[in-house]
Amino acid sequence: MRKRTLLLAATLTTGLLTTLTLPATTAAAAPSGLSDDFNGDGYRDLAVGDGGATVAGKKQAGAIVVIWGTATGLAPAKRTVVSQNTPYVAGAAETNDHFGTDITTVDLNKDGYGDIIATAPGEDAGAYNGTFTVLWGSKSGLTSGSSYRNPKHKDRGFASDIAVGDFNADGKQDVVAVDDTNIWYLRGPFTKSGSRGTATDFDPVDGENIDPVLVVSGKVTKDGTADFAVLGRDWDTDSDRVWFYKGGSGGPKKTKKVTLPASAALTEASATIADFDKNGYGDLVVGSRRAGKGGAVHVLPGTSNGPSGSAKKFTQATSGVPGTPESADYFGSDVSAADTNADGYPDLAVGVSGEVIGDNWFRMGGVTVLRGGTSGLTGKNSRMYDYATAGVEGEPGEENDAWFGDSVLLRDYTRDGRAELVAASSQNGRLHILPGSASGPTGTGSKMLTLTSLGLQSLTKFWAELAD
Predict the structure, then answer these.
(1) Which of 27, 32, 230, 367 could serve as 42's disulfide partner, Cβ 3.0–4.6 Å?
(2) Is pTM, for the whole model, over 0.85?
């Protein structure tokens, strides 16, 4: 999915570009098959993309930090930093490569180990503009990498956003990569040797003049096959739209085109897919931080042929949703879905990175969690988390412009059935991890990870893109 990259900037020395501490897997254990378990030990790991990292003096070369999971959750002392200067990664760290701008996790080659797909939109090796790299998981962690570039056009950008799934039901994971001119469908199998299946360019879409912005994948219809949706600007009608591709044995087919509400905005937007009412159809969520006064989230319910055109809108004016819409609140900064309270329904974390705390603590930010249920997402029992939440480290007002919630992720790292909330506070270089509970995320027992606590003091700040 996803997602927008957010400001958190970095300087890495060559000595940090190897595994610092890596938890060993149990010798007799089979790999877990989890999309974000990169060493197969059964515990989810956290990948953080940093497209703004300075590597060996190369500004904005980009890097990825992996925090390894353990039986007690994420372990900040166990981490790996990877850049294009890492020996097994193709290319070299160069100024403005932006390696790690967009990242996603998936077991791409179905070997039981999660892998990381990372874009480098500024890569220009061999006159090709933009690449994505697969960092392959193994029993020893991340040990090899393969790079992929535009299948046809040297002079066009490539892979500004990516999504993965088995879109042709052949048992192999595929990749969809979009940029400002193309929609590429790259078939699996992807291999560690760098090979892949055939490529198809879906742009122009039926002759339409479009500008793809985001691509997000998930199971929208009830047939069990992965689908994907491309969000972008339709310049023929001057409107923002969703082009939906339904997966199937013959490959993905465009089955629906939906015009987004005028109140939506795709500038710095985010998206995810989840079945919030458990009716068997995945719902498309679009986070529009630039929409109206204060931002909005639009939920397009799933149907048998794609997202419905009847969107449900959430803002801070929605009944039950904390806060009040104010200019530059940026409600919808990022979105992520998972079950936070073990009731069986996915919930939605919504970044509100410009939220004001109190009367004069400006742009401190926060995260609102909306609850799923039999009626889908509602504002009922929703809750805001920020620096004023009991147990969350960091004092409100200690500095303005913290941008808490610029990137968010819901994921169960402790295997208790309740997803933790991971939120980046972009301007002060922090990651916050809030445990799940019977009532959802809680500040009690939360962790705050800083550059110092991660042992990465040479990183002055951090561009954090949390892999969803």
Answers:
(1) 32
(2) yes
